[in-house]
Amino acid sequence: MSLFAFSRRCLLGALVLLCLHGGVVRAQTSAQSSAQASAPTLAPIKLALIEGLSGPFGNTGEAVVRNIVWAIERVNARGGVKTALGTQRLELERYDSKGQSEEALSALKSAIDDGAQVVLQGNSSANAAALIDAINKHNEREPNKRVLFLNYSAVDPILTNEKCSFWHFRFDAHADMRMTALMQVLAEDKSVKSAYLIGQDYSFGQAVLREAKRQLAEQRPDVAVVGEELHPMGRVKDFLPYAAKIKASGAQAVITGNWGNDLTLLVKAARESGYEGKFYTFYGNALGAPAALGDAGVDRVIAVADWLPNVPGKASEAFYQSFRKRFSKPSEDYVHVRMQLMIEALAQAIEKAGNTDPVGVALALEKSRVSMAGQTGFMRAEDHQFQQPLVVGVMQRQGAPGVPFDVEGSGYGFKVIRQIKAEQARLPSTCKMSRPR
Question: Is 373 helix (H, G, I), strand (E, B) or coil?
């Protein structure tokens, strides 16, 4: 039979000729073709991560990427998010702000032009403040292209107080909440009679030092503040001069909100200078800090977090092991429950709204309540500040009681010494939120 005759017979029969290539004929019934045509592929819901992915804090940005990717993978693995249009997947696009506010604002414009509906950022309170202002203006100017801003780590208290915004949701405990949790431990540590306060010279670092002084005066007036210092953020390569001043001051404890390399280099310099005091930190539980201290940090480094790998309980243990299975390299070991809860809350809010309209999603998001790894948190509608438990841990060798897991393969982990319920971590807000008409 000729090729022409064969093709004509196929067209007249029940099969539709789709492809004739390399001697293989691929065909399907007309019914199947019609069904496929009636179920169009839905566009994904675009999430734009605007973060410092290069420069001195690039490692903290990449840690965020892993957390967000893992959270999105789990949502998509169960089919995505159900909306009135059907089921839509979440899609993450990364934009490198290089840790600079100007770059973050440029990235925001690019993300919106690319169709982003949700912006994610956290590793700088200064960048977060700039993004809040820009998003407020954009959403007012372009009501048909509004975006939401989900913040996972920018913890300057002002962001959910004076600068609170209907479009902004913070999923981390702010600096005053974290300091309150840390102070519960320090207040009982009667061996500490003097403290040195040091931080990064920008809004967050300033807020930490301010709150540390206030709470010390209130809860431990017997503790003398023997030093107070702000240093350039991300530009100090040698912290030995700072460590020398800390040691010379006679401080029995250092209180710091430093993060990333600014923390790792500080604790390394303290070890090299022979400083033997304690470190009360916001982020001393990862990203190189335990390895930099080694045995010098055992019983001396205290960290506050929304969750730690050694939080007791089967749900927490299974959560952590699941993350380590997904990201098995020691350098990839930095997981945050709050980032997982954030993506789950977003998926829940979109499904409740039935679409991706930012106003409807925001209204649903401010009523969200989510659970994971034995942790439950909820969004407070009045200021969009997430309310969740906090924990405080002390650095110990892996294998010590309460320390089955270490950090980044260092051989050191954090034993949980205080668990604070969400209602105990809660602080009042001065937010006076302006809502869209």
Answer: coil
355 and 328 both lie in a single domain? yes
Report pLDDT for 40: 57
Give the pLDDT score at 291.
Answer: 92
N-to-C CA span, the chain: 71
Residue ranges of the chain with per-residue pLDDT less than 70: 1-41
Cβ atoms of residues 390 and 337 within 8 Å: no
Three-state DSSP at 310 gives coil
Model pLDDT, residue 42: 87
Task: Indicate whether 272 and 417 sit together in one domain.
Answer: yes
Distance CA 135, CA 141 (A): 10
Nearest to 317, CA basis, from 434, 225, 413: 413
In the DSSP assignment, the letter for residue 313 is S
Task: Take residue 341 and report the two structure tokens written for it.
Answer: 């809860």
Q: Please tell me the predicted confidence (pLDDT) of residue 286.
A: 87
> Could you give the C-alpha distances from 10 to 4, 22, 25, 27, 69, in angstroms and in order?
10, 18, 11, 10, 47
In the numeric block, the tokens 């300091």 are attached to 179
pLDDT (0 to 100) of residue 29? 36
pTM of the entire predicted model: 0.88
The domain that holds 168 is classified in CATH as 3.40.50.2300
DSSP 72-106: HHHHHHTT-EEETTEEE-EEEEEEE-TT-HHHHHH
Same domain, 273 and 322: no
